[in-house]
Specification:
By secondary structure, the chain is mainly alpha-helical. It has helices at 2-7, 16-30, 42-49, 53-65, 84-89, 99-115, 117-123, 126-137, 150-163, 167-186, 201-210, 213-223, 225-232; strands spanning 69-72, 76-79. The chain folds into 2 domains: 2-82, Winged helix-like DNA-binding domain superfamily/Winged helix DNA-binding domain (Arc Repressor Mutant, subunit A, Orthogonal Bundle), CATH 1.10.10.10; 87-232, Four Helix Bundle (Hemerythrin (Met), subunit A), CATH 1.20.120. The protein contains 13 helices and 2 strands. The chain has a two-stranded antiparallel sheet with strand order 1-2. Helix 6 packs antiparallel against helix 12 and helix 8 (126-137) runs antiparallel to helix 11. The radius of gyration is 24 Å and the shape is elongated.
């Protein structure tokens, strides 16, 4: 009897639209479609795939939502380069994410902040440093003793991401910051630690102006120390 069950093939439970969606992506790759290339019309695709036009239309709608295709006047559907951050943004409302995902996003932003030191040191310009100095100057006098102030985090850390000259990273930071603030206030992490001495925004600016990437990495780790403490202690 066991031999009979071993010979039975598992049933493919994916919907027809799922299959067409996958087939279309494979087609675009196989035919080496590039950004800006027009793709066949829905009717042609339906006939080629042996499915209804309704199924093809639903699959195409999914591809549009993913940012893989878009409609152009007089040209129909064309291949486009998806804006990955915009795609993520549709599902990144912190109120819709479970606790494990929220914590992992919190950890991811900490990693990004430390990991971008080389890009900052390689690409920073004198005018960037002057702008950072002005941002620090406008912060409250006790800001170096406060764990997290959303308005100053947005201004200062947003400028650090801008200095990387990495557009995707800049967009990603704007996406992550509301989640970071939500987790910070939500009670998901361990209770607020007693603030330890850590590198302030002013200290980070000094290193960007006079130090190197390794010093900046260490400074960013120290700057975020109290956040790490809420994860590990």
């Amino acid at each position: 009897m066991s031999d009979i069950f071993q010979s039975i093939k598992s049933i493919d439970t994916s919907s027809l639209v799922d299959k067409v969606e996958s087939n279309l992506i494979e087609l675009f790759i196989e035919k080496n479609f590039k950004v800006g290339d027009s793709i066949p019309k829905e009717l042609e695709l339906a006939e080629s795939l042996g499915v209804s036009r309704t199924v093809v239309r639903e699959a195409m709608l999914r591809l549009r939502l993913m940012g893989l295709i878009e409609s152009k006047k007089h040209r129909g559907a064309v291949i486009t380069s998806p804006d990955l951050v915009s795609v993520l943004e549709k599902s990144m409302d912190p109120r819709m994410l479970n606790d494990d995902t929220l914590k992992e996003i919190f950890e991811m932003r900490l990693s990004l902040e430390i990991g971008m030191a080389d890009f900052i040191m390689q690409r920073v310009k004198q005018e960037d440093i002057q702008e950072l100095k002005q941002l620090v100057k406008n912060e409250p006098s006790l800001s170096d003793k406060m764990l997290f102030q959303i308005e100053h985090e947005i201004a200062f850390h947003g400028k650090l991401y801008e200095i990387t000259r990495n557009e995707t990273m800049k967009k990603f930071q704007r996406l992550l910051l509301p989640v970071f603030d939500y987790v910070h206030k939500s009670g998901l992490l361990k209770k607020m630690p007693i603030n330890r001495q850590y590198v302030s925004h002013q200290g980070i600016v000094d290193i960007i102006e006079n130090g190197n990437a390794e010093q900046l990495r260490n400074a960013m780790r120290s700057h975020l120390e109290n956040h790490f403490a809420r994860l590990f202690e």
